[in-house]
């Protein structure tokens, strides 16, 4: 059994900490809010993020970063993409041993266009990082805490590190596969949020199932196009971290990205939607990053570009869909890769 610290006590960090604690690992959950650490330690709840869940008593929390870093040499990074740099920068000040970093965040940083593992590499001291593993796949926290069967992928260039993560998390309801394609797994996890926002908009406009199936299928085509251009393995995009996560995020009411899109489709402004959510909607910033990546790599990503216009230039969703439908005629398969 291992000592593990999970950084970030939102829905996903808390759900993964429960899996680890149930697997017998001495698991500490770090939160930047002292009141939340107290709630977890005293009441064994995290009402804001998982209102129905009672946490295992063995799972403890701290808001002291030094205690969190000292506790383990396996760290799970579960804060939103925009907080990764800040948290890693602060951790670096107290880090004094080699550690395995597992990250579960699904985003791409706008402007730098870095994937999460690249951000981690850039802001952690190299001598204290044994490896970086990404854990990603169709896995809503709300279902994991109910112990509903869930499958996910651990990816690292070094397969032994991916297998270590597989062993840490795997149990009767949480099945972990391994992959060495870090680029493909990270891109699939981040880019599906863009398409999930679009699927939510489509549902908000009451466009029905044909439209949603089209978004999922053509969304996967453009994710794959960019992902392969950036070095991902084409097969990864039809795996759990690609198609699997795309399906769950575009079709589940648990998805914050889908829900945000749904509100946009019903006519709310982006500002109103984000104020309503109270949880991270990664797809918004990632749409900007994906739009920039499409331009940089000269890859056609019509859905991403259309969503970029809706989110950042207030283009009405209905007009955007009309324009998408009357684009130049195309072959379906040519030009996929
Ligand atoms: N929810 C899910 O089912 C899944 C989520 N993910 C990914 O995991 C990542 C985290 O998502 P999730 O847990 O759902 O997000 P939530 O919005 O549920 O929680 C985010 C957590 O991060 C904390 N946080 C935000 N900013 C900072 C900061 N600067 N320093 C420290 N802590 C901070 C929040 O604190 P506060 O409460 O103070 O805001 C909160 O505890 C995302 O990238 C998401 O895409 C991946 C798979 C499944
Ligand atoms: O990535 C997720 C499920 O696999 C969670 O998606 P949302 O961030 O849209 O809720």
Automatic annotation (TrEMBL):
**Any one annotated GO CC term:** cytosol
Q: Which domain of life is it from?
A: Bacteria
Localization, per the record, is: Cytoplasm
- What UniProt keywords apply to this chain's record, in alphabetical order? Cytoplasm, Lipid biosynthesis, Lipid metabolism, NAD, NADP, Nucleotide-binding, Oxidoreductase, Phospholipid biosynthesis, Phospholipid metabolism
**Residues binding NADPH, per UniProt:** 11-12, 32-33, 49, 106, 141, 256, 280, 282
E.C. number? 1.1.1.94
Q: Return the Pfam families for the record.
A: NAD_Gly3P_dh_C, NAD_Gly3P_dh_N
Q: Which Gene3D superfamilies match?
A: N-(1-d-carboxylethyl)-l-norvaline Dehydrogenase, domain 2 (1.10.1040.10), NAD(P)-binding Rossmann-like Domain (3.40.50.720)
Active site per the UniProt annotation:
192
* Pathway noted in the entry: Membrane lipid metabolism; glycerophospholipid metabolism
- Transport as a keyword of this entry, yes or no, is no
Chain positions recorded as NAD(+) binding sites: 8-13, 141, 256
Q: Tell me the ranges covered by the Glycerol-3-phosphate dehydrogenase NAD-dependent N-terminal domain, including all copies.
A: 3-161
- Describe the family membership recorded for this protein in Swiss-Prot or TrEMBL: Belongs to the NAD-dependent glycerol-3-phosphate dehydrogenase family.
Stated name of the protein? Glycerol-3-phosphate dehydrogenase [NAD(P)+]
Species in which this protein is naturally found: Ureibacillus manganicus DSM 26584
- Its encoding gene is what? gpsA
């Amino acid at each position: 059994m291992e000592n593990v610290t999970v950084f970030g006590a939102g829905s996903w960090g808390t759900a993964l900490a429960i899996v680890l604690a149930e697997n017998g690992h001495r698991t500490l959950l770090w939160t930047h809010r002292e009141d939340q650490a107290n709630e977890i330690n005293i009441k064994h709840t995290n009402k804001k993020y998982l209102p129905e869940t009672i946490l295992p008593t063995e799972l403890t929390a701290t808001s002291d970063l030094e205690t969190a870093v000292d506790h383990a040499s396996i760290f799970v990074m579960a804060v939103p993409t925009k907080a990764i740099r800040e948290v890693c920068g602060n951790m670096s000040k107290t880090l004094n041993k080699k550690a395995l970093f597992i990250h579960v965040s699904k985003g791409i940083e706008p402007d730098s266009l870095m994937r999460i593992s690249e951000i981690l590499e850039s802001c952690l001291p190299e001598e204290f990082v044994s490896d970086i593993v990404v854990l990603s796949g169709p896995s809503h926290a709300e279902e994991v805490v109910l112990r509903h069967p869930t499958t996910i992928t651990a990816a690292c260039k070094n397969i032994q590190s991916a297998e270590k993560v597989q062993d840490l998390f795997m149990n009767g309801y949480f099945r972990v596969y391994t992959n060495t394609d870090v680029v493909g797994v990270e891109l699939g996890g981040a880019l599906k949020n863009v398409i999930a926002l679009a699927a939510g908009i489509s549902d908000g406009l009451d466009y029905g199932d044909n439209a949603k199936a089209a978004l999922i299928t053509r969304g996967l085509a453009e994710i794959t196009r960019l992902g392969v251009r950036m070095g991902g393995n084409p097969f990864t995009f039809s795996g759990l971290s690609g198609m699997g996560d795309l399906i769950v995020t575009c079709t589940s009411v648990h998805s914050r990205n889908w829900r945000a899109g749904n509100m946009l489709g019903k006519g709310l402004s982006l500002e109103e939607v984000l104020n309503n959510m109270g949880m991270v909607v990664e797809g918004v910033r990632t749409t900007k990053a994906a739009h920039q990546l499409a331009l940089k790599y000269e890859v056609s990503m019509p859905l991403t570009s259309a969503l970029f216009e809706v989110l950042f230039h207030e283009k009405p969703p209905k007009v955007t869909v009309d324009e998408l439908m009357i684009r130049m005629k195309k072959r379906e398969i040519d030009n996929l890769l």
